[in-house]
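ok, trying the design again with the full structure, not the truncated one.
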């Protein structure tokens, strides 16, 4: 039943998002609204699956706390998304820009951000072979992060600069607690050689407070006329996507090695046997270079730099596809 539900989520969300992007590109408000409803339907089903998993995660209270917060943010995110899409077609929503900012905060820092922070308490100790983060400190970090998110969302909806600034400062405090826990895992972990994946993960950790600082600068007009765009770029491509790529570089060979059988009684292959270093090097270099160039192009409003960043990013994406294909190929021949 759960496999069928996951397939249904895929066939609702992916086409829905695709049509939504087309509708936004063509400014077709009716298409945007119905695509938003389809996408939200799939994500509501995903939320039910996530809730079912969280209900059984009683042994991981801090991680579950982050997960339940992410789930609540997802529900609010979907409600706001459909309302904003409906506003384009039918009107009736008050301050569209304020609700759009709340939508960004709930999506970036709420749903995706809380999942990243929560699951970091599992995957980082697992990869570094360290003890789990101290529960008390982690609980405090969760509490501060939730308060920051609630304050920021309220500030966005109410268009209150003071609340948004306070949320930014609280977010920096939560980020500081989280990063201290992560660096403790690196310091005490038995595995020291962590590869290119942790180059990206460490970069993402830097991007977390940097994103909040850019957001504060944009709030008070110190990030240039493209400050809001720069904030969104740091949030999605700087922190979240960089962290995702780092985790995928590490976890794809790990999961592949767990599903490869070399015969009865044989141990699974080492991750190094399923990983090609060349595409990882190329991807890491291109991802970092593309981010820097594109961030500079947004800050300076330079079209040529955007084109260059796009080309570099495409090369990095192809390198990551090469890495993924190579892992799949090695699994196929090792089975």
């Amino acid at each position: 039943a759960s496999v069928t539900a996951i397939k249904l989520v895929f066939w609702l969300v992916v086409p829905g998002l695709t049509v939504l992007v087309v509708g936004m590109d063509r400014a077709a408000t009716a298409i945007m609204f119905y695509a938003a409803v389809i996408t939200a339907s799939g994500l509501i089903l995903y939320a039910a699956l996530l809730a079912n998993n969280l209900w059984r995660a009683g042994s991981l209270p801090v991680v579950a706390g982050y997960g339940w917060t992410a789930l609540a943010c997802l529900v609010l995110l979907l409600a706001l998304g459909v309302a904003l899409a409906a506003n384009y077609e039918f009107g009736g929503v008050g301050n569209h820009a304020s609700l759009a900012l709340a939508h960004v905060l709930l999506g970036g820092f709420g749903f995706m951000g809380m999942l990243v922070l929560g699951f970091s308490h599992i995957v980082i100790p697992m990869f570094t072979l360290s003890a789990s983060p101290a529960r008390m400190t982690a609980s405090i970090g969760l509490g501060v992060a939730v308060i920051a998110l609630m304050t920021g969302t309220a500030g966005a909806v109410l268009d209150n600069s003071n609340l948004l600034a306070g949320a930014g400062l609280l977010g920096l405090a939560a980020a500081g607690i989280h990063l201290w826990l992560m660096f403790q895992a690196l310091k005490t972990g038995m595995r020291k050689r962590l590869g290119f994946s942790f180059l990206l993960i460490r970069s993402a950790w830097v991007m977390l407070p940097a994103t909040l600082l850019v957001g504060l600068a944009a709030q008070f007009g110190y990030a240039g006329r493209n400050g809001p765009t720069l904030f969104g770029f740091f949030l999605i491509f700087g922190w979240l996507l960089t962290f995702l790529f780092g985790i995928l570089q590490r976890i794809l060979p790990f999961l592949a090695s767990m599903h490869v059988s070399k015969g009865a009684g044989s141990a699974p292959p080492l991750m190094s046997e399923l990983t090609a270093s060349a595409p990882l090097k190329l991807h890491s270099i291109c991802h970092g270079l593309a981010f820097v160039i594109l961030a500079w192009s947004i800050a300076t409003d330079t079209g040529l730099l955007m084109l260059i960043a796009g080309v570099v990013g495409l090369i990095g994406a192809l390198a990551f596809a090469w890495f993924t294909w190579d892992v799949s190929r090695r699994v196929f021949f090792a089975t």
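Keeping the full-length input from now on. The two ends are 28 Å apart (CA to CA).
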